[in-house]
Write a structure and sequence with these properties.
Elements (H helix, E strand, L loop, with lengths): L2 E6 L5 H15 L3 E5 L4 H7 L5 H10 L1 E4 L13 H8 L4 E7 L12 E7 L9 E3 L7 E3 L5 H17 L4 E6 L7 H12 L7 E6 H10 L6 E4 L1 H15 L8 E3 L4 E3 L18 H13 L3 H17 L5 H4 L13 H11 L26
Parallel strand pairs: 1-2, 1-3, 3-12, 5-10, 8-9, 8-10
Antiparallel strand pairs: 4-5, 4-11, 6-7, 11-12
The chain binds nicotinamide-adenine-dinucleotide.
Length: about 375
């Protein structure tokens, strides 16, 4: 039996990094049949729309997809394909693990947290308008519902339990946004007692940013609304080693789409220089989702050892300015081949050394 998975290569560096992930998937030996469909710029050229109905149909039929980044024009043009995909498939949970790998590219090698972001409503609901004819004022509506808040908060607690994490932190701005923030806060406070085995606490978004910049190692699972989650995911990606190594996943009730945090990086498109690790770690999350735990562990271990060894790594992990241990940079395809070569050789059960960094404290006191 083989798994049928939708593959959306996407724009810019998308085709290169998704090719890299496919190569690594092949090395795991897990039988995957890829159904390749186009969305974004290529779909506009061939089908006149950035998100053809056939793409949604394919994802709904297969229920699992691996996606590359898709370009969104700024200020005008078509609405974000990424936002449309999330809303139309009701992919309500955006999950972004921020795991420092082999102590590289980070001042906080102990970072190992997950940002769980509500992905269907909030300030990304698409309800916005000019207030007057002169376009001198504008409004964007922040929609928060109890149903969506309960759903994402329950998801975060369940994820924490399943992955043996110990703490869930809700992030909001309920002191200023008393209705929307207050509603999310109330949903969290009502849900927390159902998970007495987990520590539940809260941070205001501004304090959370400061806390993360000082000691990300103290945080475990963060659950928040759409815009705050978008910003915190990038912050945490930066803390853990940069966009090049930050994977993401979108979950609905029955569908899961795996995509990197990074965008289409147009300036690097077609040059075979982009870091393939984020997309390869999306493959790791995908393998875990379909129950191929050992293959997923092998992929993560192969990525870790390739970065730790630092012989075949892309520019963002190699050049001075990006790393304290510079080496000559390798291409995207060379790094993918190196990771794929290691997949069958690594011991997926050996513990990974996670160094303690300056951001770590053993103080269990929770600050407010
Ligand atoms: P970006 O993530 O594409 O690039 C930000 C910086 O990180 C750039 O310097 C880029 O070169 C670098 N970078 C990104 N990915 C990299 C990789 N794998 N290896 C090495 N370097 C990498 O963000 P942007 O420039 O703000 O956005 C470009 C386009 O991507 C926009 O149209 C944006 O809307 C879109 N975008 C799409 C998604 C998605 O599809 N989920 C997410 C974010 C941005």
């Amino acid at each position: 039996m083989s798994y049928r998975v939708t593959l959306i290569p996407g724009d810019g560096i998308g085709p290169e990094v998704t090719d890299a992930a496919r190569l690594v998937a092949q090395a795991t030996g897990v039988p995957i049949e890829w159904e390749v469909v186009d969305a974004g710029e290529k779909a506009i050229q061939t089908q006149g729309t950035p998100l053809p109905g056939s793409v949604l149909d394919a994802v709904m039929a297969n229920r699992v997809a691996l996606k590359g980044p898709i370009t969104t024009p700024i200020g005008g043009g078509f609405r974000s394909v990424n936002v449309a995909l999330r809303q139309q498939l009701d992919l309500y949970a955006s999950v972004r693990p921020a795991r420092a790998i082999a102590g590289e590219g980070t001042r906080f090698p102990e970072t190992d947290l997950v940002v769980v972001r509500e992905a269907t409503e909030g300030l990304y609901s698409g309800v916005e308008h000019w207030v007057d004819r002169e376009h001198s004022a504008a409004e964007t509506v922040d929609i928060i519902t109890r149903k969506a808040s309960d759903r994402i908060i329950r998801f975060a607690f369940e994820l924490a339990r399943r992955d043996h994490r110990h703490r869930v932190t809700a992030v909001h701005k309920a002191n200023i946004m008393k209705t929307t923030g207050g509603l999310f806060q109330a949903a969290f406070r009502d849900m927390a007692p159902k998970y007495p085995d987990l520590i539940a606490d809260e941070r205001l978004i501004d304090n959370m940013c400061m806390q993360l910049a000082k000691k990300p190692g103290e945080y475990d699972v963060i659950v928040t609304t759409n815009l705050f989650g978008d910003i915190l995911s990038d912050l945490c990606a930066g803390l853990a080693g940069g966009l090049g190594v930050a994977p993401g996943a979108l979950y609905g009730e029955e569908i899961a789409v795996f995509e990197p945090v990074h965008g289409s990086a147009p300036k690097y498109a077609g040059q075979d220089v982009a870091d393939p690790v984020a997309e390869i770690l999306c493959l790791e999350l995908l393998l875990r989702h379909i129950g191929e735990k050992e293959a997923a562990d092998r992929v993560f271990r192969a990525v870790w050892e390739t970065i730790a060894e630092k012989k075949v790594v892309t520019y963002d992990l190699a050049l001075p300015g990006y790393t304290l241990r510079p080496v000559p940079p390798s291409s995207c395809s060379a790094m993918a081949k190196e990771i794929a070569r290691k997949v069958p050789l690594v011991d997926p059960h050996a513990p990974l050394p996670r160094p303690k960094g300056q951001g770590h404290t053993d103080d269990p006191q929770l600050e407010t």
